[in-house]
Amino acid sequence: MLLEQHIEELRLELCDAIGPVERREIEVELEMACAELAVIIAEQEGAVDAEPPF
């Protein structure tokens, strides 16, 4: 599954979340997926170095 699809599915799940615990779990997973996508995009654009610093 593409990361963008996963993010979209998480957004849909967030709309259907029943309780605060479930909602928070989905929010955390969504935040992590969005951060991962941001890193991938930054690496592709050359904004960050994909190699480890050592």
- Biggest β-sheet, characterized? none
Number of helices: 2
- Mean pLDDT value: 90
Proportion in helices: over 70%
What is the chain-wise order of helices and strands?
HH
Description:
The protein has about 55 residues and is mostly helical. Helix content is about 75%, strand content about 0%. It is built from 2 helices and no strands. The mean pLDDT is about 90.
Please summarize what this structure is.
With 54 residues, the chain is mainly α.
Task: Describe the secondary structure blueprint for this structure.
Elements: H1 3-16, H2 20-45
Characteristic key phrases:
54 residues; mainly alpha
